[in-house]
Amino acid sequence: MQAITKAEKTKVTSLFNLLAEANGEDPNDLLHQLKVKELEKNNIDEGSRMLLQQMAKLQVENSQLRKKQEESPKENRADLITNQTTHSKQEGQSKSTDENKNKRKEEE
Known about the structure:
Layout: H1 6-22, H2 27-41, H3 49-107
């Protein structure tokens, strides 16, 4: 779901309040009516509370896992770069050792 900016929320709230007032209604009462309709549409009542709490908890856990997975490739890239640098240094040292051995053989 896309994040909603504070400016967008303010604009919508302002228009909603004006709509309610233009129709002679209290904006809070109208908002409450909308919430009740949404709960009824989804067959949600007080008995649904525990399930909804568990679902909300799972959403938080999923979000944390996604965040860790997003960070993990960054860590893996850093490890890969470190390993490549170390491997390159080792190759360079190995080449210079091989070159020295070849020079000694040629001298003999």
